[in-house]
């Protein structure tokens, strides 16, 4: 009643009803109407500044220091229900946010960090608007969900929008394939490996039915990663070989390089170190040629891990530190944490325990900021090794148990076995820490 009374008073004071029109648009945006969007709406109002000031006078909005207009949640939901935006104003707002979605960075390049900072405040609004639109899917909606999901997977992975869209694209095989692929990508980022494999398998079949070989190859390659993490190396190698063959048929240099990078990672898991180095070196050369600094650095990181497995500590640190430096510039915090973790492992194995502890704790803090459960568990395991080396057996056991709970939840059987053996006999030397990545 209070909100309705305020709106009646507002309408009595503003016979143009522009204030209510602006309030209706503000109510569609849970994180507020930001100044850049406000300016883009200006052309669709006779006097948008007066409308804003009138809403402020009647306490229906607040104006923050950065000029963002916000409505309280009860007001927002009331207006959405009783006074929804007119179709022309609503469509204008959607168009503005389609442009925002189109500009979202999805590749980890030298501009990602800068562009991500600009984009981040609008992610909640974009998600909310897209959920309003999933009942009426279009290529524009699917493309926006694609961009949003890819961007979010680098920062705060979320299944919400893609899952909301999926049932509404059932009649459209290629849109359904794209949506299923995005859900799989997010499952990988959330460490839901079985769900990811199922999604990529479904998406592969849908893309093949649509004769989209490039996307089918992408899904095969993507499915190999969770198979590798689950120690299912034969399935992973088969998928990568199939994907590589398709990319070669299509003369897709980038796709072939991605497969070779993944094959390098896989060969490392199979202890075939010469093959791993060969694949990673070839992939890095292609990524450098294609000006893909993130992926070129990923090859360096993986080569560093291979050198660590071979006890070539100087080469391992050199490669990992070079990759870390690029990740810092790109703002790829999870990858920075991974490099620091492996440098910490290297220092521990060199006997530099204090430096190793510092690096592992810093990596742990970064993983926590990104809510990376696998990263946190891997740090806990490595800190357990460190405490064991320091003769602090009780602390080591606590850390092993912490890691074990996460590895069990993620169905990572190899890591589960390692932790169980460590817990059973903390004082035994465990020769398998090279596999605990």
Can you describe this structure in just a few lines?
The chain is mostly helical and 437 residues long. It contains 23 helices and two strands. The radius of gyration is 26 Å and the shape is globular.
Please count the beta strands (DSSP E, at least 2 residues each).
2
Specify the overall morphology: globular
Structural class label: mainly alpha
Distance between the termini: 59 Å
What radius of gyration results from the CA coordinates? 26 Å
Order of helix and strand elements from N to C terminus = HHHHEEHHHHHHHHHHHHHHHHHHH
List the keywords:
single chain, 437 residues, mainly alpha, Serine Threonine Protein Phosphatase 5, Tetratricopeptide repeat, two-stranded antiparallel sheet, 2 strands, 73% helix
What does this structure look like?
The chain has 437 residues and is mainly alpha-helical. Among the domains are: 2-85, Orthogonal Bundle (Arc Repressor Mutant, subunit A); 252-331, Serine Threonine Protein Phosphatase 5, Tetratricopeptide repeat, CATH 1.25.40; 349-437, no CATH class. It contains 23 helices and 2 strands. It has helices at 2-13, 18-26, 35-41, 48-57, 73-82, 87-102, 112-119, 123-133, 139-153, 160-165, 173-189, 193-209, 213-229, 233-249, 253-269, 273-289, 293-309, 313-330, 333-349, 353-369, 373-389, 393-409, 413-424, and strands at residues 62-63, 69-70. Strands 1-2 form a two-stranded antiparallel ribbon. A hairpin with a 5-residue loop joins strand 1 (62-63) and strand 2. Helix 11 (173-189) runs antiparallel to helix 12 (193-209) and helix 14 packs antiparallel against helix 15 (253-269). The chain is globular and about 80 Å long. The N and C termini lie far apart (59 Å).
């Amino acid at each position: 009643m209070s909100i309705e009374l305020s709106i009646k008073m507002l309408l009595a004071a503003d016979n143009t009803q522009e204030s209510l029109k602006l309030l209706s648009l503000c109510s569609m945006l849970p994180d507020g109407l930001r100044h850049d969007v406000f300016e883009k709406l200006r052309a669709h109002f006779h006097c948008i500044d007066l409308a804003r000031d009138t809403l402020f006078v009647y306490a229906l909005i607040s104006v923050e220091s950065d000029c963002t207009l916000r409505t309280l949640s009860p007001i927002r939901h009331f207006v959405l229900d009783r006074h929804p935006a007119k179709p022309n104003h609503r469509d204008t707002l959607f168009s503005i946010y389609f442009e925002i979605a189109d500009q979202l960075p999805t590749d980890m390049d030298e501009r990602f960090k800068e562009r991500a900072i600009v984009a981040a405040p609008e992610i909640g609004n974009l998600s909310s608007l897209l959920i309003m639109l999933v009942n009426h899917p279009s290529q524009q909606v699917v493309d926006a969900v694609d961009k949003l999901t890819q961007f979010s997977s680098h920062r705060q992975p979320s299944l919400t929008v893609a899952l909301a869209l999926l049932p509404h694209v059932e009649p459209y095989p290629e849109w359904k394939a794209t949506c299923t692929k995005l859900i799989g990508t997010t499952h990988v980022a959330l460490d839901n490996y079985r769900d990811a494999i199922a999604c990529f398998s479904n998406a592969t079949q849908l893309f093949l039915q649509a004769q989209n070989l490039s996307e089918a190859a992408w899904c095969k390659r993507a499915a190999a990663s969770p198979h590798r993490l689950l120690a299912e190396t034969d399935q992973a190698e088969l998928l990568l070989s199939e994907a590589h063959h398709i990319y070669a048929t299509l003369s897709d240099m980038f796709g072939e390089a991605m497969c070779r990078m993944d094959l390098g990672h896989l060969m490392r898991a199979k202890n075939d170190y010469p093959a791993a180095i060969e694949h990673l070196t070839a992939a890095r050369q292609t990524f450098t040629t294609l000006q893909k600094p993130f992926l070129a650095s990923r090859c360096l990181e993986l080569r560093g891990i291979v050198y660590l497995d071979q006890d070539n500590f100087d080469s391992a640190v050199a490669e990992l530190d070079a990759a870390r430096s690029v990740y810092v510039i790109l703002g790829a915090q999870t990858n920075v944490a991974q490099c620091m973790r492996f440098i910490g492992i290297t220092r521990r194995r060199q006997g530099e325990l204090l430096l190793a502890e510092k690096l592992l704790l810093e990596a742990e803090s970064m993983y926590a900021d990104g809510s990376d459960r696998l990263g946190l568990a891997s740090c806990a395991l490595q800190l357990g090794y460190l405490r064991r080396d320091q003769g602090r057996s009780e602390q080591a056991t606590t850390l092993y148990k912490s890691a074990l709970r996460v590895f069990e939840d993620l169905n990572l059987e190899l890591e589960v076995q390692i932790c169980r053996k460590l817990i059973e006999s903390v004082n035994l030397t465990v020769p398998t820490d090279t596999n605990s990545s």
